[in-house]
Amino acid sequence: MPGSGISPAARTVDRQAVEAAMRATPVLIRGGPGLGKTRLARRIHEGSDRSAAPFAIADAQRAPLCWQELQSAALTAGEGSLLIVGIDRLGPELQDFVMAMLSAPPFRLMATAGSARDTLRPDLDAALRAHEIVVPPLVDRPEDTVWLAARLFPALNARRPAPLVGITASAEDAIRAYDWPGNGRELRARLLRAVEAATGEMILPADLFPEWAGDEAIRPLSEVRDTAERVQIAAALERTQGQTAEAAKLLRVSRTTLWEKMQKLGL
């Protein structure tokens, strides 16, 4: 069952996570905010031979860490896994401390970071690069946004006194078309608000994006057409596992036409 999404990029992340679970080397998970990097690290731990041991977290993302907190998390991890969230936010002294711990650690080190690498000392960067997983933003994989919304909806819907029927096709189109700068975290927040605020039987685009209400909800036909084509092309590529020739046959266009549209739509 997919854990990160249904797009080719998400499947690559899932495959890399399975491979990481089979190794004992450090793991670095890179990506923007709201992409589930901590959850992915936990999946790697639970799929490894250390799953019976603790999974300890030292979070430098929310607040600066001191070496005592980092040492305490390492002791808690024992022979399990230690996850340092936001390792790129550690200062030079704490990076030195991490390198010292890596000399003979009983635990398996995992870490999350943003896209930049220049904040890590070179030897720590090299140690973490042994197994690096990059999680792409949702804007680069719109098919995963609807998949994620479908996964989140049942639990959120169960909180309502009168559960909703589902999400309309037009709301799904709006989900695909949106850029999601906050990634999965923003999607969950908008979906939660939509489930709580919806007055009909199903979620509408205006429930998810109230700021689009009124005239702003009217979109140019060219934008609507591009959105529809993007959805169909992505679905065809998914069904054919990225084979453009086969996807062109499904879409009943030439391979050249499909390639041109893929370039235009950023697929």
Automatic annotation (TrEMBL):
Q: Which domain of life is it from?
A: Bacteria
Task: Fetch the InterPro entries from UniProt.
Answer: AAA_lid_NorR (IPR058031), Homeodomain-like_sf (IPR009057), HTH_Fis (IPR002197), P-loop_NTPase (IPR027417), Sigma_54_int (IPR002078)
Q: Which GO terms describe its molecular function?
A: ATP binding; sequence-specific DNA binding
Alphabetical list of Gene3D superfamilies matching this protein:
1.10.8.60, Homeodomain-like, P-loop containing nucleotide triphosphate hydrolases
Keyword entries, A-Z = ATP-binding, Nucleotide-binding, Transcription, Transcription regulation, Two-component regulatory system
Residues making up the signal peptide according to the UniProt record? none
**Protein name, please?**
Sigma-54 factor interaction domain-containing protein
Species source reads Cereibacter sphaeroides
